[in-house]
Design brief:
With 445 residues, the chain is of the alpha+beta class. The protein has two domains: 5-230 and 381-444, FAD/NAD(P)-binding domain (3-Layer(bba) Sandwich); 232-374, Flavocytochrome C3, Chain A, domain 1 (Alpha-Beta Complex), CATH 3.90.700. 36% of the residues lie in helices and 20% in strands. The chain has helices at 5-16, 32-36, 47-51, 58-68, 75-96, 124-137, 189-195, 213-221, 248-251, 271-279, 292-298, 302-309, 319-326, 330-345, 423-444, and strands spanning 22-24, 41-42, 101-102, 116-118, 141-143, 147-154, 157-164, 170-174, 178-180, 203-204, 225-226, 231-238, 243-244, 255-257, 286-291, 314-316, 366-378, 381-382, 389-391, 397-403. The strands form six sheets. Strands 10, 12, 13, 14, 15, 16 and 17 form a seven-stranded mixed beta sheet that branches. Strands 2-4-3 form a three-stranded antiparallel beta sheet. It has a three-stranded antiparallel beta sheet with strand order 6-7-8, with no helix packed on it. Strand 6 and strand 7 (157-164) form a beta hairpin. It is elongated. The protein binds flavin-adenine dinucleotide (FAD).
Length: 445
């Protein structure tokens, strides 16, 4: 159920071993959140990394994920995902001609190696289009406009599903194995309010069709669920334009201030946890403050160029002038910039504990964008084992029910702070592959 990265990759894994899956998708065209993403997939030990001379390992990726989530992750799942990540990227590239390149230039926060693999355009739309093309080439049936409404079971075995078509007609389809790849509940405001109240008012940036169906079926089936309060947020969405502004502005030296011109967090802790913190400021807003060097870096990103074209980027030759344009406190901003210069030269230590010494201090002309926090996708879901099998309350797997991607419990701990960049597609792509392989074994058995 679902034709995002998780569903299509599971399906490709099945056709590889001669099993014909049926993919059910509620939309007219397969897109999902995968199509809205930047398409960045972390993986270790890939051929692409080897060609660039990058030494990476399962242990390193595992420890980066575990550290970011402060150890509050399912280690069996993290291990299975990390182990499968490299071979999955190689298989997608070599067997299914999915074009992926290594993202170079900067290491994403929390990652100890260059390991983001993405379409050359850095757009998830190309990832999903190529996956759909690969599915067509291998003659996978994708039934679109097929909204799965019900699961049918005998005991703890799933025997089929019920779909509804746009004209209201209904159909029942039997199954040997069912993979839930219909993501989380980001598109369901009531569920967001219930499980992630801090983000109830945030803009949702993901796919609206992700309504939490897997979780609701899990409740009916009495399945185990984990980390429903976990999510990926983003603390840098241009306001009111609603355009994602690259976090590289922060990692490479920029700062975020509030209307008093003051920093309110260590921006280097990560963009996900910054969403709630930005929303907690007056007007649910913050201002990214940076300089010409970082503006040039921003211009490498399509969305930044778009925001610039729409007038979101403001610039001025002095801090006071910039504060005036932004309608924020000039005195506050001047003293913040002065403090940051002192942090950068090592004269003072940042009380918010960010290390400023590795990047040059900001220099005139100065730049800014008003931003707010957004919800990208939820990370909690059905508890799965390392084979992507959904667990019952007694911790035994359901005999033929699997989950992957955003439908499964993630690897990002219980809240927003546990999300390591790329955990979303890492779970979708790699767990999708594992779900396909396990299903093949179950069907053959
Ligand atoms: C703006 C943005 C940028 C992002 N960038 C990145 C990134 O660079 N790297 C990264 O790792 N992650 C990123 N993410 C997160 C990433 O997109 C998701 O984690 C990932 O795409 C999830 O894949 P999926 O296959 O589980 O779900 P999806 O791609 O959302 O697919 C789920 C599919 O299921 C369908 N569906 C839902 N319910 C039903 C139903 N009842 N019946 C039939 N079909 C149904 C939906 O229509 C959808 O097509 C980003 C997210 C956003 C919003």
């Amino acid at each position: 159920v679902g034709s995002g990265a998780a569903g299509l990759i599971a399906a490709l894994s099945l056709t590889d071993v001669g099993i014909a899956p049926l993919v059910l998708e509620r939309d007219k065209i397969p897109r999902g959140s995968t199509g809205l993403s930047s398409g960045m997939i972390p993986a270790c030990g890939t051929n692409i990394q080897a060609q660039k001379g990058i030494e990476d390992s399962i242990e390193l990726l595992t420890s980066d994920i575990v550290n970011k989530a402060k150890g509050q992750v399912n280690l069996e799942l993290v291990d299975a995902i990390c182990r499968t990540s490299g071979p999955t990227i190689d298989w997608l590239v070599d067997t299914h001609a999915i074009e992926l390149t290594l993202v170079e230039g900067f290491v994403y926060p929390g990652h100890s190696r260059l390991r983001m693999h993405a379409p050359p355009s850095r757009q998830g739309i190309d990832l999903i289009s190529n996956l759909t093309l690969a599915a067509e080439k291998t003659e996978i049936d994708i039934l679109t406009e097929a909204h799965v409404k019900n699961l049918y079971r005998e005991g703890n075995k799933i025997i089929g599903i019920g779909i509804e078509r746009p004209d209201g007609s209904k159909e029942k389809i039997g199954c040997e194995v069912l993979i839930l790849a219909c993501n989380g509940f980001g598109g369901n405001q009531e569920m967001v309010k219930q499980y992630i109240p801090d983000m109830a008012k945030a803009i949702y940036f993901g796919h609206p069709g992700n309504q939490g169906d897997a979780i609701n079926w899990g409740k009916i089936l009495d399945a185990q669920m984990e980390n429903l309060g976990s999510f990926q947020g983003h603390g840098s969405v241009a306001h009111p334009h609603g355009i994602l502004i690259t976090w590289a502005l922060m990692t490479e030296g920029g700062i975020q201030v509030n209307s008093a011109g003051k920093r309110f967090t260590n921006e280097h802790e990560g963009y996900s946890e910054q969403a709630v913190r930005v929303i907690a400021q007056k007007q649910s807003s913050a201002w990214n403050i940076y300089d010409h060097r970082l503006h040039e870096l921003g211009l490498e990103f399509e969305e930044y160029r778009e925001a610039n074209k729409l007038g979101a980027v403001k610039t001025a030759s002095t801090i006071e002038e910039l504060a005036g344009i932004l309608h924020i406190s000039p005195a506050g901003l001047v003293s913040t910039i002065k403090e940051c210069e002192d942090f950068s030269s090592g004269k003072q230590k940042d009380v918010l504990q960010r290390d400023f010494t590795s990047k040059p201090p900001l220099q005139a002309p100065y730049y800014s964008i008003q931003v707010t926090g957004a919800l990208f996708h939820t990370q909690g879901g059905l508890t799965v084992n390392g084979c992507a099998q959904v667990l019952q309350k007694n911790s035994e797997p359901f005999p033929n029910l699997l989950a992957s991607g955003g439908a499964a419990n993630g690897i990002s701990g219980p809240a927003d702070w546990g999300y390591l960049s790329g955990n979303g597609l890492l779970s979708a792509v790699t767990l999708g592959r594992i779900a396909g392989q396990t299903s093949a074994r179950l069907v053959k058995h």
